[in-house]
Structure prediction request, 364 residues.
Amino acid sequence: MNNIKLIKLSAILLLMFNVSLNAKEVETNQKEEHAASGDLKTEIKEYINHHLLDSHDFSLYSYTTDSGEHKYVGAPLPVILWDNGLVVFSSSKLHHGESVAEVNGNFYKLYHGKIYKTDAAGTINYDDKHHTINEKPFDISITKNVVFIILVSLLMIVVFGRMAKSYNSNQAPKGISKFLEPIILYIRDDIAIPNIGKKHYQKYMSYLLSIFFFIWIINLLGLTPLGVNVTNNIAVTFALALLTYLITFFSGTKDYWKHIFWMPGVPTPMKVILAPIELLGTFIKPFSLMIRLYANITAGHIVLMSIIGLMFVFKSWIGSSLSFGLAFALALLELLVAALQAYIFTMLSALYFGMAVEEHDEHH
Prediction:
């Protein structure tokens, strides 16, 4: 009897020990899966941030070797700095921020997309608020965004130059001209003439066509695997909005400025109150152009890349399939958004030009 009790007690102890081991193993596996999931989410966030930012080189893709080395496939671009003189070198020396470039006895390091002066060890110094205090040379490098701005500009010059020659020689449109002609006519008949008027619209057509096709083509390139996101750079949208503001400013007639600073038919006390508000409105309008284009394109890219990243987070075919389907549908929607943002920017620019050249009949 004692032997039977001893066997039962031993079996119970062995079972408890086995359950304890299994519980610890499950807990360990859960922690490892959670850590791996956290690392994956962090990697996806970093990839999205890298996708959105401009860079000093053109990278097609990257991969990690079995030895842990990170390899980049692409092409370097020229780095142009003003550091007590002109400094020019290849971005390959920076190696995506992993190396320090030595040029003429000075050391430069790429850190969070910006180039700083440093020492041979690549030391980055911070202040109490963790802000970088290293000296930063004036950077006028040919970055990835600059390259594609130049390429799109040259493409537009070639395409529209050939179209102009064909029309001057009275030839029927052919090739891409057949596709572009209806769009040009639409911008003329449905955007320029209704908002600016038949009397003044022609002198603004070149700008309106340029801005529409530039924004549209650049936005479409941003949806390709090339990783070109020019219009989600606030400096680019600021430059475009500034052009619209300057054209509106110099196009403004006497009546336009009079209706801003001293509105006819309005009591004098109200004129004093409304004049600063109207003047502020002339700056708010191009500011809204800048923010609208920047925010819509940036938000679209973040959402699209996040949904694509979910395919790697979900480890089931159902979750990955749903993420892929949603990403595909959103990508199709982004094609519409690319054209819509170009249309909105062009439409509002034409509207501002029309307000600037509008002729008012004060007696009426």
